[in-house]
User: Fold this.
Amino acid sequence: MSLLVMVPSKTFLYGEYAVLRGGKGCVVAHEPWFTLEAHLSCEQNSFPFHAESPAGRFISQNSALKKMKLLWRDPHGGVGGFGGSTAEYNSVLQAGLSVLGRPFRLQNEWEKYRELIQSKGSGADFIAQALGGICEVQILSSAEGRSPQVRVESRSWPFKDVEIYWWKTSQKVKTHEDLQQKISLDMELNQLVFMADKISAALSQGKKEDFFAEMKEFYQELARLGLQDPAVVRDAQEWMSGPGVLFAKGCGAQGADVFMIFVDKSADLKLRQDLENRGIRYYGRKDITEGVKIRDNTY
Assistant:
């Protein structure tokens, strides 16, 4: 048996931290693809993932995968910031389900993933990479003793006169470590839930001015709470002084992983030329793609 699993990269559009408290978080699945080749092997196999990572723990619990040779390719060269850890997990999960002939059931697999990471993250990135496109994720609390439910809505980008670009920064904050450090902010994060809901409403109703006004308030609140790296805040202010730039922000833990910019189409070409002159490898709306793909390469 030989399988090829392809998992898209991911980037947060909005709702970081809010999604941890029942607010709405929106994640974009985009190219390039992480890939895993899994081949049945009689040899003693070593695995490409850290033993304590979600993927490593999943393999340790899956006897079928232990018999396979795994070849992992990260299109970002391991620099982090585009969902590498969840892509690892998604890839071994899909390979394991395929080997066992089991279907992918979102709620069940999301719960198992959250157990592996000890609920230190929302799992929104896991969901977006699995399903693809622009996914808005919300965790709904359940009755005591029952697992929370996850609600997912597919979103489209309604503002045809606005382009979005994003690129990797030179920084990286490990999400699980960041969340551990911010545990004292539990109560203050509740305000972010309300603000993320307003962003979501503006997006779904196609109200551009409201959308960017709410985005600015949300990320100003993140900065006030110490949830945006000061260097990222300075970079955002600098970019927003440029022609046609409607908004700029950091994405992910502390906003340090990936930088995102929203620009009016009238200034689109100039911005792309600026990014290319700076040697920045950027992604945009044209790179938004479908979710996990799996192919049986057995001949």
